[in-house]
Amino acid sequence: MGRLVGDSVSSRAMKIISYNVNGIRAALRKDLMGWLKSADPDVLCLQEIKANKEQLELEVFEEAGYHAYWFSAQKKGYSGVAILSKTGPDHIEYGTGIPSMDAEGRNIRADFGDVSVMSLYLPSGTNSARLDHKLEYMNLFQEYINNLKVERPNLVIGGDYNICHEAIDIHDPVRLKNTSGFLPVERAWIGGFIESGFIDSFRHLNKDVEKYSWWSYRANARQNNKGWRIDYNMVSAPLKENIKRALILNEAKHSDHCPILVELD
Question: Which domain holds residue 124?
Fold first, then answer.
C-alpha cells in the first residue's frame, strides 16, 4: 500500500474508497464482497454499517485480504463506521473521545505511516432536534480535526457528510434550499471546513461535473438521477499534490448511496 514515509512518497498509489452501505448485512446480501474484490481498494471506509461485529461473518473480509476494524453505535442497528485495509495500520483510533459523538459510532481512524484515513458519518438533520445535534456535532468535529491536524497533518477523511456544498452538488438547488442537507448554515460549515485546510478531492479534479452520491428511495430518484452529492473524500492540504484520481462510482448499487474513490500517488 502506498504511504508517506518522512517526506517521501512511495511509488505505489493508495486507493481509498468511502461507501455508506446503509446496512452492511443488507449490502453483503447484494454481493458487496464481489464488488469489493473487483474495486480492490487499499482502504475502504464504511458508514452506516448498522451492525456489531458479532453479527457479521468476519471470515469473508479476511478471505478477501482485508483487516477489518469496526466502531458500532451503542444503539443496535443504527449508524456505525468501519475501516477495511489490505495492510494492517500502525494505529486505530476508535471515536473522538467526545461522548455525544462516540455513542453513535461515527468516527474511526487508521494511521498508515504518515498518512491517516478516517471514516466519518455526520448526522442527518431530519427534524429540529436532530438538526441541533448535527450542528453541535459539526462544531465539535471541526475543533477535534483542528487539533488532530497538528499531530496528524496528512489526513484523508472519507465519509457521508450529509451536506451538499454548492448548487452543482444537488439536483434541484432552488426547491431544496430550505431542506436539511442544503441549508445555508450547513453549506457554510462545509465551506469553512474546506477553508480550514482540506480539498474536496472530487471537485478538485472534476470542476464542472454534475454527479451525485445519494438518491432517495422515493419516486424513482436514482433512475431519474435526482440526487445529492453528500459523500466526500476530503484530503488535507499537505497532500494536495498527491491527489491522482477522484471518482464517484455510481454503478455500484448496494445502497441508496454509491461509493466514492480517491487515489493518492
Answer: 11-264
Tens digits of residue pLDDT in 69-107: 999 999 999 999 999 999 999 999 999 999 999 999 999
Q: Is residue 5 part of a domain?
A: no
pLDDT at 250: 97
33 burial type by CB count under 10 A (0-12 exposed, 13-18 middle, 19+ buried): middle
Q: Is 213 exposed, middle or buried (0-12, 13-18, 19+ CB in 10 A)?
A: buried
Single out the residue of 69, 21, 13 nearest to residue 42, CA to CA. Answer: 13
**The overall pTM is greater than 0.70:** yes
Contacts within 8 Å (CB) and 24+ apart, 66-70: 66/36, 69/94, 69/108, 69/110, 70/108
- When divided into structural domains, the chain yields a total of 1
102 catalytic per annotation: no
The predicted-structure confidence for 230-242, as pLDDT tens digits, reads as follows 999 999 999 999 9
3-state secondary structure of 252: coil
Alpha-carbon span 69 to 79, nearest angstrom = 15
- Measured distance CA(123)–CA(86) in Å, rounded: 28
Q: What is the β-pairing status of strands 115-121 and 214-215?
A: unpaired
Q: State the CATH number of the domain containing residue 90.
A: 3.60.10.10
Is residue 1 assigned to a domain?
A: no
Residue of 42, 160, 169, 231 marked active site? 160
